[in-house]
Design goal:
Layout (H helix, E strand, L loop, with lengths): L4 E4 L5 E5 L10 H8 L7 E5 L15 H15 L5 E6 L1 H12 L4 E7 L10 H12 L8 H7 L5 H8 L2 E4 L2 E4 L3 H8 L23 E7 L10 H7 L3 E6 L6 H4 L1 H13 L2
Parallel strand pairs: 2-3, 2-4, 4-5, 5-8, 8-9
Antiparallel strand pairs: 1-3, 6-7
GO molecular function: hydrolase activity
Keywords: Hydrolase
Protein name: Alpha/beta fold hydrolase
Length: 268
């Protein structure tokens, strides 16, 4: 499976960005442009649409291994000889971790944003979003403004984030993300594969490269007890907690994340 990507920058180290659930590669465009610099020659960034998201193909069943394999094939197609810094947020952070663990020849270093290598039990946090997306009458929409008016989400940032998945299709509208797949996974409750984690410490060789773990200070996705598992997989991990940031750390505190990733991507 070849995934859709956006390229930012013309020279410098290779860095790939992986978004979270219902996101798209372009969610990282502001960060990538800042890292590339005014002349675009500081880093070469590749913004990836994960399977079932954005403009990438859909899959029949969710699998972290399949996601990681698709990202690996896509990055090798971009540059067969490169070793990459990989940045992933939430769902993309889990994919980034698995990519590093299973393809250490491809990944030089990994930055994981506000997610831990563990099962979160279920997609309960997303069930309200999924229900509202399913409720939107796509066949009745007259415009994007109409969709925004009908979509019942009190947080304007979350509403905009979810509705970026809405695309005009001829005379109608469709969800660009694979909503049926995500909804079916959410219906599994504690059996959710998306909320899960496919490995146990000791099952794979620890990642030998550098790892940066970025946590939102106001987020509950990373807890103190997660550090043991993170160190087992990534012995060279360094934790950065961003005060005042929620789960969407790079949206809440872009300047902090940009500076941290700038050092991370160029550190020899």
């Amino acid at each position: 499976m070849t995934l859709h990507t956006i390229s930012v920058g013309t020279a410098g180290p290779r860095i790939a960005f992986l978004h979270g659930l219902f996101g798209q590669g372009r969610n990282w465009q502001q960060i990538a442009k800042a890292l590339a610099g005014p002349n675009g020659d500081q880093v070469r960034a590749t913004l990836v649409d994960l399977p079932d998201h954005g403009r990438s193909p859909w899959s029949q069943e969710f699998s972290f291994e399949a996601y990681a394999a698709a990202v690996a094939a896509t990055l090798r197609a971009v540059d067969p000889d490169a070793r990459w810094a990989v940045v992933g947020h939430s769902l993309g952070g889990k994919v980034a971790m698995l990519l590093a663990l299973e393809h250490p020849d491809l990944v030089d270093r990994v930055a994981v944003v506000d997610i831990a290598p563990k099962s979160y039990g279920s997609l309960e946090r997303f069930e309200g979003y999924i229900s509202e997306m399913k409720r939107l009458p796509l066949d009745q929409l007259t415009s994007r403004a109409d969709a925004e008016a009908r979509f019942e989400e009190s947080d304007p940032g979350v509403k905009a984030f979810l509705l970026q998945n809405l695309r005009r299709d001829g005379d109608g509208w469709r969800w660009q993300a694979n909503l049926p797949l995500v909804a079916a996974d959410a219906d599994k409750g504690t059996g959710s594969a998306i909320a899960g984690w496919p490995l146990t410490p000791g099952e794979v060789e620890p990642f030998p490269g550098r790892a940066l773990w970025i946590a939102g200070g106001d987020s509950e996705y990373i807890r103190d007890e997660d550090a043991e598992a993170m160190r087992a997989y990534f012995p060279r991990v360094r934790l950065l907690t961003v005060k005042g940031a929620t789960h969407w750390v790079h949206t809440d505190a872009p300047e902090v994340v940009i500076e941290a990733l700038r050092r991370f991507a160029t550190l020899s």
